[in-house]
Amino acid sequence: MAADAFAAFDAADKGSKDQEFREDLNRILICPDCKEDPPNLVEEYSSGDMVCASCGLVLDRIIDTRSEWRTFSGDDNGNEDPSRVGDAPNLMIDGDQLQTSIAFDGKGAKNLAHLQNKITQDKGTKALLQAYRDIQALTDSINTGSQVANTAKHIFKMVDDNKALKGKSQEAIVAGCIFIACRQTGVPRTFREIYGLTKVSKKEIGRVFKLLEAFLQKMGGEDKVAKATGYSQQYQAKGSTTADELCIRFCSALSFRNPVRVESIARRLTERSSEVSDLAGRSPLSVAAACIYMAAHLVGEPRSYKAIAAVSNVSDGTVKTAYRYLYAAKNTVLTKDVFPEEMFDDVLAKADKVPAA
């Protein structure tokens, strides 16, 4: 009898303990001052409090369950870098790149760092890293994107590994690599824009460019760096930048309200301008500028000679001369076979508004 009573008491006590630690999902935390239902509560992880957003009363303490980052950057950098690891290895540089770097901190650290750098880094690696930095800076200055920079670095690496172009300055080789990379990746940049980045003469960069093309055709673009970086395609020599390719970039720089329409008309004009004998031998820069000038008037967003010349990097007199030849052949370039039917009627209606040369 007593045993049964004890067993029943033990079962009841165990059941009460289970109920004590069981979470009650029907329990809702409500601000006692506002008594809003549903409650307007905010979790402030910075202070670890559950706060009523209506009156600001602290209702409960919370635990921050977010990921805990640890900063391994230098204390004197003044930044909060959540990175747990170092930089990824650069496939353009030989070696595992896991050498230890000694900071210039403390007595004698400068001499120790100098000796360590002298042992682990050779002159070739330093020159290669400097060339990579120059390529990155120059490509960023003309907004070509990372693909052009990586392609130019790959070409320079091939030249450096094969000890080609000996006696040529590194600055000229860098400019030649960028110019070839722009052509290979389909990013139109003129030769004038490339040699304007450096202090090397136009004639010297032209020589380096010819030597680089011959070297790449001989190599075929197949080496270990190319396979590792994905640039293992066969090198193909390409022609100079066309006026059609330049229209895209020039129209975006002129800030038209409808740049797509101006660009479409200008590109159609450049395609037909090849049949104009007076424009056949002129620079693609001046042809593109003249076509944009006419297209801007056809769309109803005229731009001055000076504005277009500033963008196309030619003189306004050059733009005027090219436009005079284009205007003389107006009846040849403004035809139905150049423009689609839905566009031609609109263009033809505004053809009289195009100013005479």
TrEMBL record:
Tell me the protein family, please. Answer: Belongs to the TFIIB family.
Top-rank lineage group of the source organism: Eukaryota
Annotated GO molecular function terms are:
RNA polymerase II general transcription initiation factor activity; TBP-class protein binding; zinc ion binding
Q: Indicate whether Repeat appears among the record's keywords.
A: yes
UniProt name for this protein: Transcription initiation factor IIB
Q: Which GO terms describe its biological process?
A: RNA polymerase II preinitiation complex assembly
Gene3D superfamilies according to UniProt:
1.10.472.170, Cyclin-like
Q: Can you list the GO cellular component terms from the UniProt entry?
A: nucleus; transcription preinitiation complex
- Described function: General factor that plays a major role in the activation of eukaryotic genes transcribed by RNA polymerase II.
Q: Which residues form the TFIIB-type domain?
A: 27-60
Output the InterPro entries linked to this UniProt entry: Cyclin-like_dom (IPR013763), Cyclin-like_sf (IPR036915), TFIIB (IPR000812), TFIIB_CS (IPR023486), TFIIB_cyclin (IPR013150), Znf_TFIIB (IPR013137)
Q: Which organism is it from?
A: Parathielavia appendiculata
- Provide the assembly information: Associates with TFIID-IIA (DA complex) to form TFIID-IIA-IIB (DAB-complex) which is then recognized by polymerase II.
Q: Which UniProt keywords apply?
A: Metal-binding, Repeat, Transcription, Transcription regulation, Zinc, Zinc-finger
Show the PANTHER family listed in the entry.
Answer: TRANSCRIPTION INITIATION FACTOR IIB, TRANSCRIPTION INITIATION FACTOR IIB-RELATED
- One Pfam family from the record: TFIIB
